[in-house]
Amino acid sequence: MAKPEFFTVRESFIGSLKDVEVEYHKGEVVPADDPAVKKMPLHFEPLLVRGGEVRGEVEQATAAPGEKRRLRRKPAAKAKAAPAKAAPEPEVAPEQPAGKPISHASLRGE
């Protein structure tokens, strides 16, 4: 059986690597070459999935402190603009002569 490429953390823990405090959470996936896996192997177990072991690289989702991440955004597809629909005309009450109060009857057209 080949050596596992990834491990999962058995239980959350805080450890020290080269005088730097590191924190790992239960279920977190780490590559086999992670220094913590080599220094504290009892905290990790091989990552197994249905059909065998996982192969490939794990990408870190966020930048570490002081690290800059490259953004690789795909150019947005140019969509054809749909013709604008005209807004419906609002219903307006019939005009009343100035100074004359509006009554419900005048709104009903009586």
Structure description:
The structure is a single chain. With 110 residues, the chain is mainly β. It has 2 helices and 7 strands. It has a domain at 1-56. The chain has helices spanning 35-39, 104-107, and strands at residues 6-9, 13-17, 20-24, 29-31, 44-46, 48-49, 52-53. It has a 3-stranded antiparallel beta sheet with strand order 4-1-5, with no helix packed on it. It has a two-stranded antiparallel ribbon with strand order 2-3. A hairpin with a 2-residue loop joins strand 2 (13-17) and strand 3. It is elongated and about 90 Å long. The mean pLDDT is 76.
Task: Furnish the topology, listing elements before pairings.
Blueprint: E1 6-9, E2 13-17, E3 20-24, E4 29-31, H1 35-39, E5 44-46, E6 48-49, E7 52-53, H2 104-107
Descriptive key words:
110 residues; three-stranded antiparallel sheet; two-stranded antiparallel sheet; elongated
> Tally the helices: what do you get?
2
Q: Helical proportion?
A: under 10%
- Distance from N terminus to C terminus (CA atoms, Å) equals 92 Å
Low-pLDDT segments: none
Morphology: elongated
* Pattern of helices and strands: EEEEHEEEH
Q: How many strands in all?
A: 7
In short:
The protein has a domain at 1-56.
